[in-house]
Amino acid sequence: MSNRRNPLIIAHRGAAVPVSHPENTVAAFLRARSVASDWVELDVRRTADGRTAIHHDAHLPDGRLIATVERADLPAAVPDLDEALAACAGLGVNIEIKNLVIEPDYDPTHWLSQAVVDAIRRADPPISALVSSFDIDAIDRVRALSPSLPTALLTFVLDDPAAVIAECAARHHCALHPFDPTVDRSLVEVAHAHGLAVNVWTVDLPDRIAALAEMGVDGICTNVPDLARHIFEKS
Question: Is residue 68, in this structure, part of any structural domain at all?
Answer without folding.
Answer: yes
